[in-house]
């Protein structure tokens, strides 16, 4: 290993590189292109992935929405076309039966009402919710707080409104928290104002009020409009979806094969499809990048082989004056490794600059196609290590060729 | 220094083989200045290459500095060459992208000597061959005679026991030939064994012993006037 740190080895490499400028440039370009492609493609793929992640934003993506429609099969004496509603007791049953699978469950009741503050008014959605909603879709609170357990228990007449609603109903600069607005002619105290969320927004501009308050004010009894269920980690969300619906069917005396009675939307499955596409793209990127890289390294090996053949005579001279085969081999391998390393570093630098430029051109603003296109340092290091290993291995071939001929045969070469 | 007994060498040519050296016996003692003469194809270079460990022989015995040369691997051969032998070729064989000084210093590099020291020694040897001022020139900036003197400096720089020269004056005119021969004589006077191949009688006459080859056998082996003069 001493020869690596020997300034003479480098002197020799410098000499041979200077002598073979064209081949040096060509080989460097070969590998540079490979690692450049790898970096840029991986970065772009990552950027796209980040873009999607941003699109999903603060929403717990492993969620299912469930609501009721009407039956399409007669069952247990009921006609088909029967309409029915989810109830609070359904919620309790699901919570206890699926305590392992369900992470969050939010029953919801919603309506539309006129909201009034002073002389301003506008129609908005009003939603009766539990505090857990904030865990399923994180609310960006600009002022105040979201609903809490206490609000539920005390049937508090409090509401959390959106920034846009605030702008509609309040004067500019006016303090909203602590003020009252009328919803359906009943006064509610504003306890929070939330900003627009990143990515998926389930509700749009909605006045959130406690679930219990909603029940009382709108007299919904034990009925539930619909619910959002977030699965615990590592739960097969499709399985959970069909199990839950089956349980609900038996609770509501619906035929097990009824296709219409319950509606559901599985966000997790939809996102899995996208993620699958992204994984596919990353795989493709790796494939293309590595194939190019290997091609580049082979180009280095090939060109080294050619130059070794061109340099047969020189190698013969060196051997005549005392170069051992090992020293010749070291020299050629070191040259190969040096070339691949330099090329690799240049490739990473260029690739990085391109990513930087892409980020500047397409990665800014809320609607950016690519968000933060980056490549992991460990990935780069692995690619780099692979490159150097390949460089060494490929260098072995010309190195071997250089030493198998007898020195006299090398010298005779013209 | 060099002792050869019943040396045979054949080159395979297709299915046949060409018998080039047919049982040579030769003993060269330390400090001798020997020239080999013979017509083209008589096997002179073949002999010198075997002596120089650049090639292997088929039969017979070869002792270099008392050591029997047999089944030598390339690594050992390289070390022996570096230690005992210095080569001068007809076509100079300098490395084209290295300066005269670097060329002379190269054998010392393979000896493992540090850069500073070897450049210093190399410069001393360039001075010895009268080319100190040309140290930083590339080979293609030198005349034939100068190149050959650089090559001789390179052959000498490791202080070998034997200098082997295959037609060192073959590519030179008569004046430069003389300067090269003077140089070889000088190093022989310092005690080094010198072994040259030549076509030219005048060159051979300046050595101390002439061995004549024909068709792979030695036909005469005589001391010259030079030797008797000493
Ligand atoms: N590598 C080889 N393969 C086959 N034949 C060879 C090889 N080297 C030399 N020969 C043959 O061996 C014979 C002796 O060659 P050698 O080079 O020793 O001659 P030489 O005496 O040095 O001649 P010259 O004065 O022309 O240099 C020649 O007939 C030559 O063709
Ligand atoms: Mg010859």
| Top-tier CATH class of chain B | Alpha Beta
State the low-pLDDT regions of chain B, or none.
none
Number of H- or I-type helical stretches of chain B? 8
Residue-averaged pLDDT of chain B = 91
Outline of chain A, from the CA principal axes? elongated
CATH homologous superfamily grouping of chain B: P-loop containing nucleotide triphosphate hydrolases
Share of helical residues of chain A: 40-55%
Helical content of chain B stands at 25-40%
Shape of chain B: globular
CATH fold-level topology of chain B: Rossmann fold
Q: Give the distance, in angstroms, between the N- and C-terminal Cα atoms of chain B.
A: 20 Å
Bound molecules: adenosine-5'-triphosphate, magnesium ion
Sequence stretches where pLDDT stays below 50 over 5 or more residues of chain A:
none
Description of the molecule:
The complex is a heterodimer of chains A (414) and B (230). Chain A is an alpha+beta fold and 414 residues long. Among the domains of chain A are: 2-56 and 272-412, no CATH class; 70-101 and 235-260, no CATH class. In chain A, 55% of the residues lie in helices and 18% in strands. Chain A has helices at residues 2-5, 7-19, 21-56, 88-97, 133-136, 149-153, 163-169, 211-217, 237-251, 267-310, 312-320, 325-362, 377-404, 407-412; strands at 63-68, 86-87, 102-117, 120-129, 140-144, 158-162, 180-183, 186-195, 206-210, 223-224, 226-231, 262-266. In chain A, strands 1, 3, 4, 5, 6, 7, 8, 9, 11 and 12 form a ten-stranded mixed beta sheet that branches. A two-stranded antiparallel sheet of chain A has the order 2-10. By secondary structure, chain B is α/β, with parallel strands linked by helices. Chain B has a single domain (31-43, 81-229), classed as Rossmann fold, CATH 3.40.50. Chain B is globular, with a radius of gyration of 17 Å. The model of chain B has no long low-confidence stretch (mean pLDDT 91). Chain A binds chain B through residues 7-8, 11, 15-16, 18-19, 313-314, 317-327, 403, 406-408, 411, and chain B through 49, 52, 54-56, 74-75, 77-79, 81-83, 87, 89, 93-98, 106-107, 109-111, 115, 154, 158. Adenosine-5'-triphosphate (ATP) is lined by residues 11, 13, 18, 20, 38, 40-46 of chain B.
């Amino acid at each position: 290993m001493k020869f690596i740190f020997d300034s003479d080895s480098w002197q020799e490499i410098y000499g041979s590189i200077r002598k073979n400028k064209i081949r040096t440039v060509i080989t460097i370009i070969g590998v540079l292109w490979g690692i450049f492609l790898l970096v840029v493609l991986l970065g772009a793929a990552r950027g796209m992935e980040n873009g999607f992640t941003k699109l999903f934003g603060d929403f717990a993506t492993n969620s299912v929405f469930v609501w009721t429609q009407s039956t399409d099969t007669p069952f247990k004496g009921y006609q088909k076309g029967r309409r029915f509603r989810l109830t609070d007791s359904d919620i309790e049953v699901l919570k206890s039966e699926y305590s392992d699978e369900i992470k969050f469950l939010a029953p919801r009741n919603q309506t539309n009402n006129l909201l009034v503050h002073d002389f301003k008014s506008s129609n908005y959605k009003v939603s009766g919710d539990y505090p857990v909603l904030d865990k399923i879709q994180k609310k960006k609170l600009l002022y105040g707080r979201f609903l809490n357990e206490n609000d539920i228990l005390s049937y508090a007449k409090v509401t959390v409104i959106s920034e846009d609603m605030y702008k509609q109903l309040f004067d500019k600069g006016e303090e909203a928290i602590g003020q009252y607005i009328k919803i359906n002619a009943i006064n509610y105290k504003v306890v929070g104002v939330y900003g627009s969320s990143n990515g998926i927004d389930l509700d749009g501009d909605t006045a959130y009020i406690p679930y219990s308050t909603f029940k009382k004010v709108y007299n919904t009894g034990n009925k539930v409009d619909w619910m959002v269920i977030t699965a615990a980690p590592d739960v097969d969300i499709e399985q959970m979806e069909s199990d839950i619906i089956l349980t609900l069917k038996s609770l509501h005396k619906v035929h097990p094969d009824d296709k219409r009675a319950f509606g559901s939307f599985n966000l997790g499955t939809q996102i899995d499809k996208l993620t699958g596409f992204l994984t596919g793209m990353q795989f493709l990127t790796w494939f293309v990048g590595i194939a190019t890289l290997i091609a580049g390294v082979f180009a280095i090996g090939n060109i080294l082989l050619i130059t070794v053949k061109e340099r047969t005579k020189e190698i013969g001279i060196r051997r005549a004056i005392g170069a051992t085969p090992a020293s010749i081999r070291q020299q050629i391998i070191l040259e190969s490794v040096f070339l691949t390393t330099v090329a690799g570093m240049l490739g990473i630098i260029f690739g990085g600059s391109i990513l930087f430029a892409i980020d500047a051109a397409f990665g800014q603003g809320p609607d950016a196609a690519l968000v933060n296109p980056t490549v992991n340092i460990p990935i780069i290091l692995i690619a780099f290590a692979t490159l150097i290993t390949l460089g060494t291995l490929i260098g072995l071939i010309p190195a071997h060729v250089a030493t198998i001929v007898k020195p006299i045969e090398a010298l005779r070469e013209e | 220094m060099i002792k050869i007994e019943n040396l045979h060498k054949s080159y395979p040519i297709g299915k046949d083989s060409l018998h080039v050296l047919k049982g040579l016996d030769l003993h060269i003692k330390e400090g001798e200045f020997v020239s080999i003469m013979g017509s083209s194809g008589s096997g002179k270079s073949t002999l010198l290459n075997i002596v120089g460990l650049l090639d292997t022989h088929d039969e017979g015995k070869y002792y270099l500095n008392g050591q029997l040369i047999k089944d030598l691997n390339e690594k050992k051969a390289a070390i022996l060459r570096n230690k005992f032998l210095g080569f001068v070729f007809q076509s100079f064989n300098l490395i084209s992208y290295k300066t005269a000084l670097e060329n002379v210093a190269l054998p010392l590099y393979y000896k493992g000597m540090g850069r500073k020291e070897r450049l210093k020694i190399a410069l001393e040897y360039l001075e010895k061959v009268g080319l100190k001022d040309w140290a930083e020139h590339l080979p293609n900036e030198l005349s034939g005679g100068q190149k050959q003197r650089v090559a001789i400096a390179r052959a000498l720089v490791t202080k070998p026991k034997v200098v082997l020269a295959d037609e060192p004056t073959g590519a030179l005119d008569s004046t430069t030939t003389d300067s090269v021969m003077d140089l070889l004589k000088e190093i022989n006077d310092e005690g080094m064994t010198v072994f040259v191949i030549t076509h030219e009688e005048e060159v051979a006459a300046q050595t101390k012993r002439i061995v004549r080859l024909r068709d792979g056998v030695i036909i005469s082996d005589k001391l010259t006037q030079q030797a008797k003069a000493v």
